[in-house]
């Protein structure tokens, strides 16, 4: 006789979990929309008005990066402690008010304060999002669900340049911060109306609940609000696998975000108007990469692989797909669009990799520790992003002084190309050569 979990897969289970995922997708879109507003207003509005130097703006950016890194630790712990519903709501409410608060800034220091609060609070998005996926999806669907919500970051990156300059031009720069920040407050209404953990949700069918918990070894009622010690988590090899995976690969995504427009300008003479279409193409490609990456590991699991085997295989494949980015400048000699496409493929593979490495946290750790692990790894990724940004700046300044800034970009693309293979080796060969889920007392 079939078990309840088995029989539930042969009949309709319901789709309410995808409604929950849509909320996480929109929250991630808002997350990236809010963080990009300042960069889109810098040259035409904020820099002339507040007399910023490049150092002033750099300091504002660094404040965000540092507070985002520190916020990852606190956000992950808070969400594991008080639960997904309240933790996600607090994080988004604070970052929405912080985004609106930029409109009140009257000095460089004021923007640094607003940016710092934004960084701390925005750090809560990914720990809460991954924990939501762990609560609402079985392992075979988690990478796909992660890929879908993570694509919200790409949508935010596309929407921002299309809307923010228009708002600023028609209503004033302060309204760009106010309107984009207020969107998150609207999201909160739907979050409180719709979200609850599956075991307590009145709109969830019994069949879908069985399906969600079909491969779960724990019950939500026992794990939803237990305290998890960071020090204890740091004693596990699985934690360090995730930390180094994020430390080495997250910075590459930040490099694309911050330096791609400058690369197209310095290498091919593209103006701000010229780079809009290539950047939109890159982020559109990454949207598909994020979703495909999540689907791909699920495909192998349906073929009989364990989650460990499936993630290991697809992450290696995507790491190989990123290597050709080292040729971006070489192929760009024939047409800048060849360089854009090579970078787009690499960025897409990054998002596919990201969908799977995020999911390894819920594969290896019980639900009560997932947000904390995401926070620890996210902090490592943010610190790596600061380090890589400093390295990029130093390289570009040095080679620009020699009249050969192209050499600096070549070195950076070389790093981008091979970072993922190193991360894969450390994850699956050094730290976690065999899957062994962590048991927390």
Structural features, described:
The protein is mainly alpha-helical and 441 residues long. The protein has a single domain (14-195, 235-430), classed as Growth Hormone, Chain: A (Up-down Bundle), CATH 1.20.1250. It has helices at 4-8, 16-50, 54-82, 84-101, 108-122, 125-136, 139-171, 173-194, 206-212, 220-223, 230-233, 237-268, 272-302, 307-322, 328-332, 336-364, 367-401, 405-431. Helix 4 (84-101) packs antiparallel against helix 8 (173-194). The chain is globular. Mean pLDDT is 88; it is low at 1-10 and 219-224.
- CATH fold label: Growth Hormone, Chain: A
CATH architectural name = Up-down Bundle
Taking the sheet with the most strands, its summary is: none
Q: How many domain units? A: 1
What is the approximate shape? Answer: globular
Question: How far is the N terminus from the C terminus?
Answer: 34 Å
Helix content range of the residues, please?
A: over 70%
List the secondary-structure elements in sequence, H or E: HHHHHHHHHHHHHHHHHH
Q: Strand percentage, roughly?
A: under 5%
Count every beta strand, where a strand is a DSSP E run of 2 or more residues. Answer: 0
Count the DSSP helices: 18
Could you say which structural class the secondary elements and strand pairing correspond to? mainly alpha
At the first level of CATH, what is the class?
A: Mainly Alpha
Which superfamily, in CATH terms, is the homologous superfamily? MFS general substrate transporter like domains
Rounded to an integer in angstroms, the radius of gyration calculated over CA atoms is 22 Å
Outline the low-pLDDT stretches.
Answer: 1-10, 219-224
Mean pLDDT: 88
């Amino acid at each position: 006789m079939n078990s309840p979990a088995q029989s539930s897969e042969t009949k309709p289970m319901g789709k309410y979990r995808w409604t929950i995922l849509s909320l996480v997708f929109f929250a991630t879109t808002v997350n990236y929309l809010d963080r990009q507003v300042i960069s889109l207003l810098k040259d035409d509005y904020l820099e002339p008005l507040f007399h910023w130097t490049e150092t002033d703006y750099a300091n504002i950016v660094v404040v965000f990066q540092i507070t985002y890194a520190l916020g990852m630790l606190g956000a992950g712990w808070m969400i594991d402690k008080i639960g997904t519903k309240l933790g996600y709501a607090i994080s988004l409410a604070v970052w929405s008010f912080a985004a609106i608060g930029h409109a009140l800034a009257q000095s460089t220091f004021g923007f640094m304060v607003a940016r710092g609060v934004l960084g701390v609070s925005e750090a809560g998005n990914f720990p809460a999002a991954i924990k939501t996926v762990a609560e609402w999806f079985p392992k075979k669907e988690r990478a796909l669900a992660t890929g879908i919500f993570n694509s919200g970051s790409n949508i935010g990156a596309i929407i921002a340049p299309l809307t923010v300059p228009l708002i600023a031009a028609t209503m004033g720069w302060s309204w760009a911060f106010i309107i984009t920040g207020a969107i998150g407050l609207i999201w909160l209404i739907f979050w409180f109306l719709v979200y609850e953990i599956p075991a307590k949700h009145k709109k969830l069918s019994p069949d879908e609940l069985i399906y969600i918990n079909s491969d779960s070894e724990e019950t939500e009622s026992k794990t939803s609000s237990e305290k998890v010690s960071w020090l204890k988590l740091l004693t596990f090899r699985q934690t360090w696998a995730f930390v180094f995976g994020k430390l080495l690969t997250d910075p590459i995504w930040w490099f694309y975000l911050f330096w791609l427009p400058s690369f197209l300008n310095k290498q091919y003479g593209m103006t701000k108007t010229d780079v809009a279409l290539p950047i939109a193409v890159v982020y559109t490609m990454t949207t598909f990469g994020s979703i495909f990456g999540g689907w791909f590991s699920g495909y192998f699991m349906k073929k009989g692989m364990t989650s460990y085997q499936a993630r290991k295989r697809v992450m290696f494949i995507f790491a190989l797909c990123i290597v050709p980015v080292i040729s971006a400048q070489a192929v760009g000699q024939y047409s800048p669009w060849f360089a854009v496409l090579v970078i787009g493929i690499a960025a897409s593979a990054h998002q596919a990799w990201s969908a799977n490495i995020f999911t390894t946290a819920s594969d290896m750790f019980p639900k009560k520790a997932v947000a904390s692990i995401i926070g620890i790894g996210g902090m490592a990724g943010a610190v790596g992003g600061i380090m890589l940004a400093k390295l990029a700046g130093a390289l570009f300044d040095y080679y620009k002084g020699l009249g050969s800034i192209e050499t600096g970009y070549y070195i950076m693309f070389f790093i981008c190309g091979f970072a993922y293979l190193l991360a894969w080796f450390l994850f699956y060969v050094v730290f976690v050569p065999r899957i062994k889920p962590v048991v927390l007392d």
